[in-house]
Write a structure and sequence with these properties.
Length: about 140
């Protein structure tokens, strides 16, 4: 059908002639209410956006010589974040002469990962970056 005939048909029905595949040979067109189509598309996009969940990253800072009660409190806080479906970034900042003992920081990180192991998986293991040691924990997928 020629483009003029298709356009006349669309105008007779009080609808729009929309190109579906303009690069095809011959181009493919459809007679539809374009305003209604765009409205439905935007409505679907809004619905999909509403159902989307944004994962936040929470940070927990430990010190190199943290006491047991403080450690347990931080671990409980991390478990709370993980249960809520958020990722947790665990960091230890080395100050002054503490830089000479990164192995103590690694032990603390391993101990922290073991304390929260039931609720998380280690996304990125402990790694020293400058004066900070970082480790990322992701919540365990619920089945």
């Amino acid at each position: 059908m020629s483009a003029k005939d298709a356009l006349k048909k669309a105008e007779a029905k009080n609808l729009d002639l929309v190109k579906i595949a303009p690069t095809a040979n011959p181009p493919v067109c459809k007679i539809m209410d374009y305003g209604k189509y765009r409205f439905e598309q935007s409505k679907k996009e809004k619905e999909n956006k509403k159902n989307q969940r944004i994962i936040e990253t929470k940070e927990i800072r430990l010190s190199l010589n943290i006491d047991t009660h403080d450690f347990d409190t931080k671990a409980n806080q991390a478990v709370k974040f993980l249960k809520a479906g958020q990722k947790v970034k665990v960091s230890i900042r080395f100050r002054g002469r503490e830089m000479a003992h990164p192995q103590i920081g690694e032990e603390t990180m391993k101990k922290f990962a073991e304390a929260t192991a039931e609720f998380c998986t280690v996304e990125k293991p402990a790694k020293l970056e400058g004066r900070q040691m970082l480790m990322f924990l992701a919540p365990v997928a619920n089945k």
